[in-house]
Amino acid sequence: MENNTVAIYWDFENIHASIYDSKNGKGSYSKVKNRSTAQEKLVDVQSLVDFASSFGTIVINRAYCNWQWFFKYQHSLLKNAIDLVQLFPPGSSAKNGADIKLSLDVVEDILRFPHIETVVIIGGDSDFMPLSQKVKASGKTLVGIGCKKTTNKHWANSCDEFRYYETLLIAEVSEQEQNSNETTTRGSDLIKRAIIRLSGNTGEPWVLKAAIRPMLKRLDPTFDESDYGCKNFSDFLNKFPNVCEIRQGKHDHEVRIREKHR
């Protein structure tokens, strides 16, 4: 897992529209007056990037959209180093064609970069089904993400693994909590996020201690134990006894989140 490489492709307007419709009623986003205006920030970008990171190191992170209406996502997109592809729809009521451009890029990338092992597609469109056949035929693992109410079931079934957006959300740390002790809060938040993602892959609450640090580095490449006054990673984990508990496993120490933080 540690050396795996991951490529993420976002049909960003698709996932945004799905969440919009779940909040405002089916078909709401397709109305021009709702679509052709500044969009509120609805997609939890960080939670999806965290989930993708659980499969390995992200080497491609690319999102397709008509970005002129999505400027409120600027911070989240920049924070996660997402490569933005601008797509102008050929008419006021036309689709932006993200699924076509995205699919072509995926096929090209897996040919150009054979080291890519896992492809993550964020979007629930049935138009991705032919792409799933190409990705799996190339020997890559295909992971899909989409909203429960709008994802095409055949597309979901065509993936090696599919997760519904709603199940991947992790509650964000409140601004008040961050301000109270920013460094400590950031550390405990990282530990929780890492263990949640690793645990989600295995289905077990206890995860190997050795797997946590690589996951932390994928979630936050700037992570360094010394920033928390620790000499090594064991000291770092021991600094948060209220967040996680540690036990001796069969081959290595194992860690899980304490019940009150789950």
Number of helices: 11
- Low-pLDDT stretches are 173-180
Morphology: globular
Average pLDDT, rounded to a whole number, is: 88
Largest beta-sheet details: 6 strands, parallel
Radius of gyration, taken over Cα atoms and rounded to an integer in Å: 19 Å
Which CATH architecture of the largest domain?
3-Layer(aba) Sandwich
**String of helices and strands:** EHHHEHEHEHEHEHHEHHEE
For the terminal residues, how far apart are their CA atoms? 24 Å
Query: Strand order of the main beta sheet, please?
Result: 3-2-1-4-5-6
β-strand amount: 15-25%
Estimated structural class = alpha/beta
| CATH homologous superfamily classification of the largest domain | 5'-nuclease
Number of DSSP E strands:
9
CATH third-tier fold name of the largest domain: Rossmann fold
Question: CATH top level of the largest domain?
Answer: Alpha Beta
Helix content percent band = 40-55%
Number of separate structural domains: 2
Question: Can you give a write-up of this model?
Answer:
The chain has about 260 residues and is α/β, with parallel strands linked by helices. It has two domains: about 5-165, 3-Layer(aba) Sandwich (Rossmann fold), CATH 3.40.50.1010; about 175-260, Nucleotidyltransferase, domain 5 (2-Layer Sandwich), CATH 3.30.420.610. The protein is about 40% helix and about 20% strand. It has eleven helices and nine strands. It has helices at about 10-25, 30-35, 45-55, 75-80, 100-110, 130-135, 155-160, 175-180, 180-200, 210-220, 235-240; strands at about 5-10, 55-65, 85, 120, 140-145, 160-165, 205-210, 245-250, 255. The two termini are about 25 Å apart.
